[in-house]
User: Fold this.
Amino acid sequence: MATVLCVLYPDPLDGMPREYARDAIPHITAYPGGATAPTPRAVDFTPGELLGSVSGELGLRGFLEAAGHTLIVTSDKDGEDSEFERRLPEADVVISQPFWPGYLDARRLAKATRLRLAITAGIGSDHVDLAEAIARGITVAEVTYSNSISVAEHAVMQILALVRDFVPAHELVRAGGWDIADAVRRSYDLEGMTVGVMAAGRIGRAVLERLAPFGVHLVYTDKHPLPADVEQRLGARRIERLEDLVAEVDVLSIHAPLQPETFRLFDDAMLARMRRGSYIVNTARAAIMDRDAVVRALESGRLAGYAGDVWYPQPPAANHPWRSMPHEAMTPHMSGSSLSAQTRYAAGTREILECFLDGAPIRDEYLIAEGGALAGAGAVAYTARSGEASPGSSGR
Ligand code: NAD
Assistant:
């Protein structure tokens, strides 16, 4: 019988919702490109419910306990005395969400002597030290595509929020004002601008697709070029070097995984290559940025705005400088955890667990690492060199 240790974010401050804003969510069965949405044997929740917080339990308790397994759910995840770290030696399976990451660095993995499977309920497994997990033969899996469109929608929203300067205008009306000149003095149209996407994987490509009708010039960079017919349809031009891409854009949307080669890539020097008054939206991972270089670039005017939903570590301290820097349109890490996305990644988590507990293969597209090597989707997105810790896995 397996012990499943699950780290989820705390419940809403006023308790679990008794009702929801909408009665139902659209039923998505397939993703662009034809991959199917998760296909567990069953789910024990109503689509659209809050599943990602502690009481939501990703809808897993009934299924696991009926089969005799143990489910431990906690939000207490940081520090050696946290429940997560104390219970690690018991865990055969760890489940964590990037929004409230249960960091699994080499030190913690050494404590997790029974661990065979680390599931990311969502996408992005940088909170796990992949090189160490590979060395220990631990399978790492995530629910690929479950929230890719959710994030792409959030990125497009934040691009528009920055360029049109939505947040200060909104605050102005909430405060009883009607100062049009104040509201418009940093407000522009996106039309005609050059928008760059760093990493045109599932999310980056979806951002390109969504922005194409806005009459913008699209450029992107990725190790793997998009198919030529897609480039042509979108009018998207690949630029090989990131240094050249950033110099050409008015707006940059970042969608690369966090790994050694992308860690703190955006430092003072990289930001200095951008045009004065550029915008960056980063819904990938915060540690791709040099935190303080972003603040300096906003203060100097090199950046006209910065937005995103990813922070490091998570949760960020109350005095994290991104909470108070100028011209930001930040949210907490929420883009991939809409109620719509939760339905899919909870179902996908159950599908992965069903396969694992049955001894059946996990879908290749869900695999990040397996059998002592990168695998499936992970072999495309990540590089994991032995002895090189995954930046982002320690939570410090
Ligand atoms: P994906 O695997 O489909 O795409 C990743 C792309 O990055 C691939 O095309 C790969 O070739 C490219 N890439 C890797 N290293 C690169 C580099 N150094 N330079 C340029 N391109 C590089 O993944 P996805 O579903 O599009 O997700 C991308 C990332 O978004 C995830 O790794 C995760 O960190 C983040 N994410 C955030 C949220 C959120 O809620 N904010 C949710 C899901 C994913």
